[in-house]
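Record pair follows.
FIRST:
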Amino acid sequence: MQNLWIWQHPNYPNFSFDKSAIDTLANKLKQNHEILKEIISKTSRNDLLKVQINALEDEIFYSSLIEGERLKRSSIRSSAKKRLDENFDWLADTHATRHSDNLVSLMLEANLNKAYMNFERLHGWHNALFEYSHSKTYKIKRAKFRDDEMSVVSGPSKMCKSTTKPCQQNA
């Protein structure tokens, strides 16, 4: 069976690394970065926009899939176009949802905002993820640190991996 997710790796979360192999990959990455910069300098703005939208769509789709949430690609794509494509007719759009708009905003904010992380920013992300404050079975406390135990579940059978104590906020 091929591992799809990091938690399926037999050594998760205790990995070992070969520094020389990582250095080799880092050097190759640097070379490829230079090649990519050259390609980008010769690429039209419209083609670059398509690549950005596709990358954002994939990142959100697969990040949500890891959490067991299957989103419509058309919703993500429309929300990404709303934010990135100044020529997108968002008034005529029928695919974007409030949830996909929030996810696109969150992902762009997380990737592009280089400011230090703070509680206000973290809680803003939480508000975007859980706008409606309910899961299928219980009320979600939004933009707050939890004050009760929680179970972290993962995997196809949703087996309990760990139970944690309430969060100790270190402000």
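SECOND:
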Amino acid sequence: MSGTAVTGQVHNPYAMGYSAGGSSSGSGRLVATGSVDLAFGCDQGGSIRIPASSCGIVGLKPTWGLVPYTGILSLDATIDHAGPMTKNVRDCALFLEAIAGPDGWDDRQPPFGLEGDKLKFVAPVDALISKEPSKMLEDVKIGVLSEGFEVPGQDPNVIKSVKSAIEKFRSLGATVAPVSIPLHKEAPLLWTCALPLSGGRQSLLGDMDGRKLLYLTDRAELVGPKLTQAQFDALGPGASNMYMGYLWIQEKYGAKVQGKAMNLLKATSDAYDRALQEFDVLVMPTLPYPPPRLPDPESNEGPLNFLTRTIGLVANTCPFNNSGHPALSLPIGFVPAREDPTIKLPTAVQIVGRKYADVDCLKVAAAWEKVFDWKTLQREQ
């Protein structure tokens, strides 16, 4: 959450002392401040979408396997995603078109089918935003995920802002209706069970086997055959928590927990697929609350205090790492910081589409962005 970088804390572009999100914190801040036009992010539980929401930019976690993960250190191949972080939706489509498609290395990608129109994103977006605003989304059905608004600890200002943004889709011609997927509430727990066992074991033991991909042998040599005490002591609280979680779950329950979690995750993915047979996209808040205040580096605040402030953060993001559906974070306004209501921080809506229909997420987001200026909306509220 931008507080553990080796070079120092990464501050929110709208308020010093507040988180820029994570783990792709630098990418989010660099794009938001105009230091770069485009940035790459990696997402295993929300690490593209969390900084995108926190920094007021567009971030897309593509369909699992659409963008090759080659050359990037894997955490867990079943949830590894790489994708674009940009100032606006069209740049996101342009960047995605440049990086999507098979590279011949990454076995996360399907052996065939990723070609032709499935890799065209800019032209469909341009065609859509050239229409009259009231007709842009006239054939689109948007499902408002009820459980996405029932996250413990959610901020009422975020909920109000996101619901207001969703209502604006109606003026663009879209049909907007509620949808319930009860398993959405269980998905974060399943993610929490599965990730430490797979990612924790791989990193802790220095394993690099079991995949057909480009192995990063230089990184393996740097880390060594297994994690050392010195390396563990240098970790941030999130990473060390994952390792300890792996050891605890492995000792108490054994390998069966991961297998059971993975089987239940398939049921969760199927539930999203069924909802997306009725709706073109699903929408919900990207994050349940605004970016938290960063720990004071001069204080004696322990890591547990900061982790406590981020409980529930990935409730709406990590389920789609598990399922592999594309999920885009679109900035839609500002909300007061929880610690100081005079400080206003960005918030966002998350748009989730069918697998390999990333273009639908882009089109829905582009239509909203074309008509509504999220920064102007803040001044009007």
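COMMENT: The beta strands are 11-12, 15-19, 38-43, 58-61, 81-86, 141-145, 175-179, 281-285, 327-336, 344-353.
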